[in-house]
Amino acid sequence: MTTTSPPTAPPAPARCAVALPHSRRAPSLARQVSESWLKANDPVDRVPDAVLVVSELVTNAVRHTSGPCVLTLTVRDGRLDIAVADHSEDLPELHRRSDGDERGGLGMGVIRGLGGQIRLVPAIGGKTVHVLLDPRSAPGPSPVR
Description:
The chain is an alpha+beta fold. It contains three helices and five strands, in the order E-H-H-E-E-H-E-E. A five-stranded antiparallel sheet has the order 1-2-3-5-4, covered by helices on one side. Helix 1 runs antiparallel to helix 2 (47-64) and helix 2 packs antiparallel against helix 3 (107-113). The longest helix has 18 residues, at 47-64.
């Protein structure tokens, strides 16, 4: 007689979500929350890279929208999904190159340079920008300017 054990469910993802005000302080708050949570919940080798991605996404939400945003960090299968949801239906230009004469415009290039995979999820009344980051892999080549 053989016995089989019931299938085990995959481990639940570790998740942190925080609502951020539409304020100049939001990126700083997001960096603090992210760094603390990542250090406590996942053996992430690239916490500074992940915190930089968080800072870029939240800064964009504050700069280009007029309302609050929600930052969600999810670790699943050893990968980190950084998501920022806001209330603007305007989608960011993911492949815009800055010629250096304007303020900003470099954030998505920085994120790609860190190896982040960017995905936009439009919705009625807003959008969510996701960046999938493998916290244990080395960053890719530096963005070309």
